[in-house]
Write a structure and sequence with these properties.
It is built from 12 helices and no strands. The relative contact order is 0.13. By secondary structure, it is mainly α. It is globular and about 50 Å long. Helix content is 79%, strand content 0%. Helix 5 runs antiparallel to helix 6 (91-98), helix 5 crosses helix 10 (147-154) and helix 7 (104-115) packs parallel to helix 12.
């Protein structure tokens, strides 16, 4: 819980710094944050590799496929259920938003093209919130719902931005699940969004 509060504190400090400080454009309008994520993912990979990744894969076996399947079913069912309480969001659009699996940049573009800017913006915000809430609620998710819940909550982001969080709170063994889950869901985002909306 303490580290989640530290992450939240740094996020809030960053927001206020961005609001009131004047940074050079090459810092603000660049991909520096992505390079930082790449470095974090690299070190998680080194950590996994040093623990003999092939042994972990042999232990896990085909069970690894169950995680993304459950995330897809759960996300789509949850989105469909929520749409019943939202008069302005049809079930089709709700399921398309849910099938973004946290991949806000890609899913929002597809949904904007197929259903308009309003639903594209909702997709952007809801999938961004999924990622942020996964990071902030990580210790609580693991404590009350188990190690795989953090991977399910992270969705497509479990292979990059939330991978270090999974490694810390769920353990290095679960980083393999997270990587596989993230790759599968990232591939499925454009397929499912397009299929649902057309």
């Amino acid at each position: 819980m303490k580290s989640s509060l530290i992450i939240l504190a740094f996020f809030v400090i960053g927001v206020f710094t961005g609001l009131f400080a004047d940074f050079p454009s090459f810092l603000v309008n660049s991909d520096i944050t992505m390079y930082i994520v790449y470095v974090l993912v690299f070190f998680v990979g080194v950590s996994i590799g040093s623990d003999n990744v092939m042994t972990v894969f042999k232990q896990v076996g085909l069970k690894i496929i169950i995680v993304p399947v459950c995330v897809v079913v759960g996300s789509l069912a949850g989105s469909a259920a929520i749409s019943l309480f939202l008069n302005d969001v049809p079930i089709k659009e709700a399921m398309a938003i849910g099938s973004g699996f946290g991949y806000y940049s890609l899913s929002s573009i597809y949904i904007t093209k197929l259903s308009g800017e309003t639903f594209g913006t909702i997709a952007l915000l809801s999938n961004l919130m999924r990622e942020v809430l996964t990071i902030l609620a990580a210790p609580l998710l693991v404590k009350y719902f188990g190690n795989l819940s953090l991977i399910a909550s992270g969705g497509a982001t479990s292979m990059d931005t939330t991978l270090p969080i999974v490694s810390i709170y769920s353990g290095k063994k679960y980083a393999i699940y997270a990587l596989f889950n993230g790759v599968v869901l990232t591939i499925l985002v454009p397929i499912l969004v397009t299929f649902i909306l057309t």
